[in-house]
Amino acid sequence: MSTEVQDYKKVGDQASQEMLAKATEESVDTCFDRYETQKHHCKFGTSGVCCKICHMGPCRITKKSPLGVCGADEDTIVARNYLREVVGGTAAHSDHGRHLVLRLKKVAQGEGNGYTIKDEKTLRYNANLYGIEEEGRTKEDVALDLANMMLQEFSHQEEYLKTLTLAPVKRQGVWENHDLKPHGIDRTVVEAMHRTTMGVDHDYKSLLMHAFRTSLCDGWGGSRCASIVSDIMFGAPKPIKTEANLGVLKEETVNIIVHGHEPALSEMLAVAVQAPEIKAYAKKAGADGITLAGLCCTANEILMRHGVPVAGNFLQQELAIITGAVEMMVIDVQCCMPSLPKVAESYHTEIISTAEIAKTVGASHIEFNEDLPLESAKEMIKRAIDNFGKRDKSKIEIPKQSAQMVAGFSVDAIKYMLGGTFRGSFRPLNDAIIANRIYGLVGIVGCSNPNCKLEEYTHVLTKELIKRNVLVLKTGCAAIASGKAGMMQPEIGVEQAGDGLREVCETVGIPPILHMGSCVDNSRILEAATEVVAEGGLGDDLAGLPAVGVAPEWMSEKAIAIGCYFVASGVDVVLGNGFYTSGSPNVEKFLMEDTKDLFGGSFHVEEDPLKAVELIMNIIGEAREALGINKKAERKLYDMQDRRELDV
Ligand code: SF4
Ligand code: MSK
Q1: pTM summary value
Q2: pLDDT in tens, 234-263
Q3: Structural domains of the chain ordered from first start
Q4: How far is the CA of 446 from the centre of ligand 2 (A)?
Q5: Which ligand ends up closest to the CA of 197?
Q6: Ligand closest to CA 521
Q7: Tell me: the pLDDT tens digits for 352-373?
Q8: 16 C-alpha to center of ligand 1: Å?
């Protein structure tokens, strides 16, 4: 183990600091140690000029050797590598979406085996959006048509992605004009891999345009399908209270952690832990109940629908095991470190992998029985309970820290908060933006990364933005970071918000930081922005809205795909750390500048959170100026008449 990791302050929250100190004492390696041994990164890799696409290479571009064996220059190599990263992210989100759509199809065919259509209203609303006849038809018939339509989103060979038609008309025109509309998701991804293989597409602009085309398959395709179908089968999220940080684990209970991204199994686990026979089984084992908690985006999925507490985000997955109090960690897909079984060796924790496509050496692989999902979930919980007696009590140390939070702001929930059941609408939000009570909207999304002081950027940015009357929308691990820091307790958030934002939040009863879900739920942010445009008064396109996306501490290819679909949708995106593209000034110029002319939004890199705040305020200020709403905030406080009009 590296001896260099002594500065636990590198990790923002105290719970993580305590667990890192414990890990050192117990000689357990974590990603923070491994980062120290890996941090002298290869410059060819970080600048994107290393190519190993064919076996004449690997080729690395330098001043002395400016071309690969085949003649590829730095622009081609950097753009090819970039496109392949976007493909990785798009494929991950979309495959997640596909599994859910296939499950919805089974439910519709009467083979749900415990899964049902929980939210008929959401089903019918979305069927309508996609032009599927729903009136007078059973929910199963409607669901079958919707599932089949969504499956075609993957398989279309000649037609374009249907979901694109949900974007503002002007945006659709931009995509049309730039030939950016993707065909089916599978076709687009396969084509991307073809374009980037040896000897095919060598024009960096053409490669990058396909990166943006591919990303649209993610944000408007696979991710959107995932969010819609999850809402139909598990219920559209509504504001719900829960708690976050390692302190949600309990010494006296059996602790089970679900980790990854797909909600299907964790939904069943959330149901199964409530079963009387399971509770009795835990009692018999000497436990005072069962604590089910989440990590990463599986956590976001079940916290938004069941209030299941969050043990932590991406970089706390190993630290959770180090508490010595986790009986079982159930992993599915994405962001689950292969190191987990190695960490678990020092404790009694069993790591269970559950997805056919995601096996981990050292984990027990128990494929989730789709025919008997509830039984399967109960068996898994019983196995965790059996593990309770194997704890080494001398190794148990659970940090005390946990903070209350409110999550679950789907677009529907926001509409409801703004206007009530019968008048649900974004009008009050648009009016507040026009009146400069709310200066703008910022989506803060993405991961945590040991390459920076954990979560500091996210916290500084969030605090400064709400102070300046910016309404913050959050997803993924960035959302969990704010939850752990207590900023998602509405009272605390409101206290820290600027006057205008506070006034709106207090009037309509929303917090200034809205937890909108998991990584795939970034599609909800696009949906919310589309609602703002449709409501009127703030332009006719997503480009030009006083809105910005930020990925402060991103690490995953998925974050690159997300950034690309925001930019292709016309929204500026600020990154806390840059891409592996510095080896090609042309590629960087295309991503950071040319895209502004093409799409209306572009990437910006700013490593200093306070400078990022200034940058974001300037981008929003320019948008407000162009919209003609850059006037001073109306300082009028709401009177009773206003309140009645906003009655929620
Ligand atoms: Fe080298 Fe060209 Fe092969 Fe890449 S594709 S490894 S640059 S020869
Ligand atoms: S889990 S992709 S670390 S946000 Fe969605 Fe967190 Fe990033 Fe994974």
Answers
A1: 0.95
A2: 999 999 999 999 999 999 999 999 999 988
A3: 57-234 (1.20.1270.30), 246-395 (3.40.50.2030), 408-627 (3.40.50.2030)
A4: 6
A5: 1
A6: 2
A7: 999 999 999 999 999 888 788 8
A8: 43
